[in-house]
Amino acid sequence: MRDLDEHSMSSVLDTTPLHRNCLWLFVVLAAALPPPASTQVNVEALRSDDPPLGYSGSIGSNLTIRTGNVDFIQLGLNARFYHVTELVTTLVVGSGGIGLLGRSRFASSGLLHYRKTYLYNKAISPEWFSQLNYDRSQLLDFRMVLGGGARASFASGEWGEFGMGASLVLEHEALDLPKDAVHPNNTNTFRWSSFLTLRVVPTEQVVITSTTYLQPAFNDFSDLRTLGNVRIATSVTDELALTISFNLRYDSEPPDGIAALDTTLRTGITYIY
Q1: What is the pTM of this model?
Q2: I want to staple 156 with a disulfide (CB 3.0 to 4.6 A). Which of 108, 161, 250, 253 is the partner?
Q3: What residue ranges define each of the domains in the chain, with the CATH number in brackets?
Q4: Mean pLDDT over all residues of the chain?
């Protein structure tokens, strides 16, 4: 059975235009729909450490349904698309979610992320990226991110990999806040964004990954955002994998009425395209 990737596995796609267009459709659909998340987005949780040359990708989803005293439905969908050459890796990620309580929507979110990573040497890879997302549960109408930096791998082997990355990010946010809110409705902020990632492969069927982000404001380190993710992926067949993930988000200066700390425990399934 093939090795799982860092977070949800990927495989080489048939390079026919039909199959590539199908995956692009899923990327766009996912962006239009992660289940309710935060204004910060852990894209490292949706990438593959070593995608193959050519086109590849994966599609994942999770669904929660509860009936009885409370009618609750939560649906999440994510997709990623790779194009890899000897010198450049292009990544497109689409992710979205919707939550229904009774017949009313209480949360929805969407993400579209584009990234270019260049092969400089085996240790360091420069990259740049752009991102659009929104999150109703976090009162976020629109967020745009532009950034650039580099990633590095310190150690790797059959056991897995340990690495980090750092970048400078320009962030624009438009929030849906009342007129008397203390937090401004529109902000433009430069942030440092750095992460540590660890991938451990105890068997061919199991991959355990951990990613931690720190994102302080460029000129005010007390304005800090932190993300944490631990994920376990277990293959069922060559095409399907079950996943369990724990996510933590902390914002030292959240919008009015939004908690500073969020935690989420989620199970899901991934289909390898």
Answers
A1: 0.72
A2: 161
A3: 11-272 (2.40.160.40)
A4: 78
